[in-house]
Structures are given as structure tokens and as C-alpha cells.
């Protein structure tokens, strides 16, 4: 059965859920063959039902390894990219994490599987997406994730400092406010660039200076807000 058949194979809801579980297992095995993806990242992806975060008319594609539209011109990231970002951020239990771009809430849920839901703070530009994400996350047991509506370029200073911060949409440059809101030894990660985007990691040293690394080209929707 292909991705496009995911909602056709069962006669009731339980059969449909079994199809989704099987497809999620298949996706995880597919990603397991990628050297850049750790078992810990895969375990976090395996724990989160991606089909619950996509629009109903796109659920048949929920476990295809690709982005999907979620409204307001935004997308849910491809699973392999979420896993790569989990690894590049070097997430650990108990860390406080700032996410810029809640979207549908999927990436936040994956992050919460590692650091704990109460340690995830997410900023969403579109109030409609933020409202839906809050509801969806609460229904799925991630209600302790904190979400606010605002311009992600400004971060969320009320809960700073953060151990980690990441973008789910591309910015022209690393937002200064996010680096300022990181703890010493904190890590920022996000797609940076206009025509050409690169996944960039910035480590904040104890003296406040930063070290920058790049991990190749990526393609994300544009970050909203800013000047």
C-alpha cells in the first residue's frame, strides 16, 4: 500500500490508525539508513503521530518524507529535516528550548519528546496557526508547551535565557535577539539566507562571543515579520 492509500485500507478508525502506525514505522526504517540521523532523534519522531498535525485532506501523505502545506503559506517540515535539526541542536533532557515558528506544532512535539514539554517555548506569527497548534498539542498530551503569537525575530525574552533556539523558517540573517537570549554555551540553529539558504549553527561561548558552522543547503519557507 502506498502513501496515497493510507486512508483507504481500513473499514474503521482503528484500522486507519493501524495503517498510520505501520507507515510511521516504515518511515523510521527509511530514515534509519541515513548516517546523519541518530537513534535518539528517530525515537522522538516515532513517538509523535505526524498525521495528527497535517490537514485532513493531506493525511494520506503524512508519512512521506517531505514538507506539506498547513495553511497561511506555511508548511510542516520533512521528517528527515526535523531529525537532523534535533541532532544538530544536541538536545538533552531538561534543556530550555525556544522555537521560532510553531506552525502546526509537530516540530515542537518532537523537541518535547527529548527535553520535556514544559521546557519548550514557541513563537508563531499567525494567530490562527498558534490557536490550532495549542489545541492539537493539548489533545495529544503536549499541553505544557508554551505558545505565543508574535514576531519571532524578537524571540521571547520573558522566558530567557534558553539553552537552545531554532528556526523552522528561513531568515535573512541570524536574529540578534535570539543570540542575546541564549545562555552561555547555548546553541542556535536555523536556515539562513535569501535566494540560497544554508543550515547554520551558532554556539555562544561563555565569553559571549560566537562560533558559526554551516551544514549545507536547505529550502524552507520565509520567516514572517522583521523589518
TrEMBL record:
<dbReference type="GO" id="GO:0004719">
    <property type="term" value="F:protein-L-isoaspartate (D-aspartate) O-methyltransferase activity"/>
</dbReference>
<dbReference type="GO" id="GO:0005737">
    <property type="term" value="C:cytoplasm"/>
</dbReference>
<dbReference type="InterPro" id="IPR000682">
    <property type="entry name" value="PCMT"/>
</dbReference>
<protein>
    <recommendedName>
        <fullName>Protein-L-isoaspartate O-methyltransferase</fullName>
        <ecNumber>2.1.1.77</ecNumber>
    </recommendedName>
</protein>
<comment type="similarity">
    <text>Belongs to the methyltransferase superfamily. L-isoaspartyl/D-aspartyl protein methyltransferase family.</text>
</comment>
<keyword id="KW-0963">Cytoplasm</keyword>
<dbReference type="Pfam" id="PF01135">
    <property type="entry name" value="PCMT"/>
</dbReference>
<comment type="function">
    <text>Catalyzes the methyl esterification of L-isoaspartyl residues in peptides and proteins that result from spontaneous decomposition of normal L-aspartyl and L-asparaginyl residues. It plays a role in the repair and/or degradation of damaged proteins.</text>
</comment>
<feature type="active site">
    <location>
        <position position="77"/>
    </location>
</feature>
<feature type="compositionally biased region" description="Basic and acidic residues">
    <location>
        <begin position="1"/>
        <end position="11"/>
    </location>
</feature>
<keyword id="KW-0949">S-adenosyl-L-methionine</keyword>
<keyword id="KW-0808">Transferase</keyword>
<feature type="region of interest" description="Disordered">
    <location>
        <begin position="1"/>
        <end position="24"/>
    </location>
</feature>
<keyword id="KW-0489">Methyltransferase</keyword>
<dbReference type="GO" id="GO:0030091">
    <property type="term" value="P:protein repair"/>
</dbReference>
<dbReference type="InterPro" id="IPR029063">
    <property type="entry name" value="SAM-dependent_MTases_sf"/>
</dbReference>
<dbReference type="GO" id="GO:0032259">
    <property type="term" value="P:methylation"/>
</dbReference>
Amino acid at each position: 500500500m502506498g502513501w496515497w492509500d493510507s486512508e483507504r485500507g481500513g473499514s474503521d478508525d482503528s484500522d486507519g490508525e493501524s495503517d498510520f502506525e505501520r507507515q510511521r514505522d516504515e518511515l523510521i526504517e527509511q530514515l534509519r539508513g541515513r548516517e546523519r540521523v541518530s537513534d535518539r532523534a528517530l525515537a522522538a519522531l516515532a513517538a509523535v503521530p505526524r498525521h495528527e498535525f497535517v490537514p485532513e485532506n493531506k493525511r494520506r501523505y503524512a508519512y512521506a518524507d517531505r514538507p506539506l502545506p498547513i495553511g497561511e503559506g506555511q508548511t510542516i517540515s520533512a521528517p528527515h529535516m526535523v531529525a537532523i535539526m534535533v541532532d544538530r541542536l544536541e538536545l538533552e533532557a531538561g534543556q530550555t528550548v525556544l522555537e521560532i515558528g510553531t506552525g502546526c506544532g509537530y516540530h515542537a512535539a518532537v523537541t518535547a519528546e527529548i527535553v520535556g514539554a514544559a521546557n519548550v517555548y514557541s513563537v508563531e506569527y499567525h494567530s490562527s496557526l498558534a490557536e490550532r497548534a495549542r489545541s492539537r498539542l493539548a489533545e495529544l498530551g503536549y499541553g505544557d508547551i508554551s505558545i505565543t503569537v508574535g514576531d519571532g525575530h524578537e524571540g521571547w525574552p520573558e522566558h530567557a535565557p534558553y539553552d537552545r533556539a531554532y528556526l523552522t523558517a528561513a531568515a535573512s540573517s541570524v536574529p540578534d535577539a535570539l543570540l542575546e537570549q541564549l545562555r552561555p554555551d547555548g546553541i542556535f540553529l536555523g536556515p539562513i539566507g535569501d535566494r540560497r539558504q544554508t543550515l547554520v549553527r551558532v554556539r555562544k561561548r561563555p565569553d559571549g562571543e560566537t562560533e558559526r558552522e554551516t551544514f549545507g543547503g536547505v529550502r524552507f519557507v520565509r520567516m514572517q515579520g522583521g523589518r
